[in-house]
Amino acid sequence: MSKDNSKDKLWKGRFTEPTDAFVEKFTASVNFDKRLYAYDIAGSKAHARMLEKCGILTKTDRDQILQGLEDIQIDIESGNFAWSVELEDVHMNIEARLTAKIGAAGKKLHTGRSRNDQVATDIRLYLRDAIDHIKSELTRLQTALLNLAEAEADTIMPGFTHLQVAQPISFGHHMMAWFEMLVRDQGRFLDCQQRMNVSPLGSAALAGTSYPIDRFYTAEQLGFTRPSENSLDSVSDRDFAIEFNAAASLLLTHLSRFSEELILWASAQFDFINLPDRFCTGSSIMPQKKNPDVPELVRGKVGRVNGNLISLLTLMKGQPLAYNKDNQEDKEPLFDTVDTVMDCVRSFADMVPAIETKNDNMYKAAHSGFSTATDLADYLVRKGLPFRDAHEVVGLAVKSGVELNKDLSDMSLDELQKFSMQIENDVFEVLTLEGSIASRNHIGGTAPEQVRSAINRAREKLT
Ligand code: ARG
């Protein structure tokens, strides 16, 4: 019986003793990098095709390799692949299995490459796809925001500064603020994706390879725009992972702010919206509770994503060129960030279309906080008062409103004229919430007409 050498280290030649059992586990990455298998196989296929095209492999070898890799992918996807820690990582697991399957040809696949350019290629392919998914989920969320903004363009709510009622605004306008943040997030992901889309394959361990390879061919096969410029940089660069994580941190920062507002608005104190039961959970002790768990969890998730950003930045800091084993530590934070972002955006894209607005409550809140005080000041300016004097007059009027427990629009002309004789009957048009929002009628303003044109422009850009 021949010895089973399928789990032998592929690099065992120069070693005189086996790896320490703990070191083997400590240095292995297969438990987490196996999720790169499809990208590893795609990269290997492109490499094998290129080797044949350049006369480095025979057609028979290439075809056996391609078939073997396809079979391995099927084995993995059908659960018939035993990942082995002895074989350290996804790359050597697949390569060893290939040789076990097809024999001598399998041993030729690694000609002119290294795990260093292999892993740099795999993560780029993985992240490129992940960004595509994130972008399309973000578009789903943006579409939901546009629909909600359109349906509620005329709905009046209080706008806040310092969480104090400031001026009335359109609920649709508020939704469009979230939309705009997501436009910038989309832009950052796209930008990162375009910058990272270059092929490291052919950089080999660090210096390139002595074989007559065609790096343009592998780049094209894998959908990269071109081969990377510098072999040392290519195998050690993880900027793209950091850049992606930074974009993810900003996106989750936005979603955490959005979450905070939904949580406030769903509370009994605000009571501006209802989040349907399917996005909430109850309390095991307090029977009356309905907790906004989804936004609360999303608000909390930014913590781990920011942690991952710091992990990646710290991991890269001070590393000498070129590849170092440190780089293996890039994967877990990166995967965690991708998973977290996907889950958060997905839950928001599902939840936003289900938000039920409580328009009367929002209106009442806008009506009770002297939200049209600025409108009265602007009115007095139009009647000839300098703005600072108008500000003072309205301040005194508000003080008396607080004492009388009356909004400015509920005070009589006589009551208002105590503060300025410039105030006339036409004042009531500007003191209404509707008049106030309609008057902010310029690009970027809260007038429903402007909100609708902002939505139209946004829809055009989105499709
Ligand atoms: N598992 C390794 C990683 O994730 C693959 C590259 C290893 N290269 C090496 N020369 N040890 O970074």
Explain this structure to me?
Helix 3 (about 35-55) packs across helix 6 (about 115-150), helix 10 (about 240-265) packs antiparallel against helix 11 and helix 11 packs antiparallel against helix 12 (about 330-350). The strands form three sheets. A two-stranded antiparallel ribbon has the order 1-2. A two-stranded parallel sheet has the order 3-4. Strands 5-6 form a two-stranded antiparallel sheet. It is mostly helical and about 475 residues long. It is elongated and about 105 Å long. Strand 3, helix 8 and strand 4 form a beta-alpha-beta unit. It folds into three domains: about 20-110, Fumarase/aspartase (N-terminal domain) (Fumarase C, Chain B, domain 1), CATH 1.10.275; about 120-155 and about 170-355, Fumarase C, Chain A, domain 2 (Up-down Bundle); about 370-460, Orthogonal Bundle (Ribonucleotide Reductase Protein R1, domain 1). The protein is built from 19 helices and six strands. The site of arginine (ARG) has 10 residues, from helix 6.
Structural features:
463 residues, mainly alpha, Fumarase C, Chain B, domain 1, Fumarase C, Chain A, domain 2, Ribonucleotide Reductase Protein R1, domain 1, two-stranded parallel sheet, 19 helices, binds arginine
Which helices and strands appear, and what pairs or packs with what?
Blueprint: H1 21-27, H2 30-33, H3 37-53, H4 59-77, H5 90-102, H6 115-151, E1 156-161, E2 164-170, H7 171-196, E3 198-199, H8 215-221, E4 226-227, H9 231-236, H10 239-266, E5 273-274, H11 293-316, H12 331-351, E6 356-357, H13 359-368, H14 373-382, H15 387-404, H16 413-417, H17 427-431, H18 433-439, H19 448-462
Parallel strand pairs: 3-4
Antiparallel strand pairs: 1-2, 5-6
